[in-house]
Automatic annotation (TrEMBL):
Alphabetical keyword list: Methyltransferase, S-adenosyl-L-methionine, Transferase
EC number: 2.1.-.-
Residue ranges of every copy of the Methyltransferase domain listed in the record: 65-131
Keyword check for Glycoprotein: no
CDD domains from the UniProt entry: AdoMet_MTases
The keyword S-adenosyl-L-methionine is annotated on this UniProt entry: yes
Lineage: Bacteria, Pseudomonadati, Pseudomonadota, Betaproteobacteria, Burkholderiales
Organism whose genome encodes this protein: Yanghanlia caeni
Catalytic EC class: transferase
Descriptive protein name: Class I SAM-dependent methyltransferase
């Protein structure tokens, strides 16, 4: 029998058991407390807005749509049922919402293509999304922004209501008095590049602020021509120089290389490589 200082086993044991029963009753009388804290309450997106979100993102059969904070599942379900996405995933921390969303997917006949996962969106790897949808809050959008910017270039991100601060949306629409915003994740081009074409070689020093590009170009003839430009996913536009002598190049970035052509030319005959 264990000896505990100041503890008379026979009398104190009975007291302990009674106290145990009393506190068990007290615990059971309390409403069940959630073992998680939601970052955003459940407020469903109206169906007209769901439609515009998916239409603006041009969701189609090549897409895997991930809805962060999926609520009753309406966005993920519509992505597959109405827009023909190949698959969709909804992530929600509230098990009641997940159960409801699964039941809704079942009734809609799409449970083979739509998964609902009970998980914290901040601990979810959503890098497989080709389209990411969100109806969250401004600070949650901002907390996700760096991770979103690391997604594959060209990934479309659609938010109901809230922006991402100085990362300006590529598309902004009002739908029934609500805002719908869409961004296309830009390729990452910041740094030094060599661009070689039929009539010369340039060294580009590029800075990038989200989808906007600035910088300088050095050629055999000039040392610091101004460069401006923009990105739409992997599609790049660069303007080298100013005024009448400015040259515009358009093309695509793929990792550490780019293929561009002077405006008006069909040949992407300028090859860029990161230095
Ligand atoms: C405003 S509702 C949006 C529901 C749905 N996406 C829609 O637009 O109809 C936000 C959802 O996020 C969920 N949520 C809140 N914090 C979360 C977190 N940290 N991880 C996953 N889901 C979360 C809530 O349970 C809620 O269902």
């Amino acid at each position: 029998m264990p000896i505990v200082r100041g503890f008379s086993f026979l009398t104190d044991y009975r007291k302990l058991v009674l106290a145990g029963i009393a506190s068990l009753g007290f615990i059971m009388a309390q409403p069940a407390r959630a073992a998680y804290t939601l970052d955003v309450p459940f407020v469903p997106t109206p169906y007209e807005v769901v439609d515009r979100m998916l239409a603006i993102a041009q969701v189609g059969p090549d897409d895997h749509v991930i809805d962060l904070g999926s609520g009753d599942g309406r966005i993920a379900i519509a992505a597959v049922r109405k827009y023909g996405a190949r698959s969709a995933l909804g992530v929600d921390l509230n098990p009641e919402r997940v159960a409801e969303a699964r039941a809704n997917a079942e009734s809609a006949g799409v449970s083979d293509k739509v998964e609902f996962r009970e998980a914290d969106l901040f601990e979810t790897d959503f890098s497989s999304a080709t389209v990411l949808t969100m109806y969250l809050l401004p600070d949650v959008n901002l907390a996700l922004r760096d991770t979103i910017l690391k997604l594959a270039p060209g990934t479309r991100v659609v938010s109901h209501a809230f922006d991402m601060d100085e990362w300006e949306a590529d598309v902004y629409e009002r739908v029934d008095g609500r805002s719908v915003l869409m961004w296309v994740v830009p390729a990452r081009v910041e740094g030094r590049w060599k661009l070689e074409g039929p009539d010369g070689v340039m060294q580009l020093d590029l800075q990038q602020q989200f989808q906007q590009i600035s910088g300088t170009a050095g050629t055999a003839q000039a040392t610091a021509l101004p460069v401006s430009g923009s990105l739409n996913g992997a599609a790049i536009t660069l303007v080298v120089g100013e005024g009448d002598s400015a040259r515009t190049f358009t093309g695509n970035v793929q990792g550490d290389s780019m293929l561009v052509a002077p405006a008006g030319s069909m040949d992407t005959n300028w090859k860029g490589s990161r230095l």
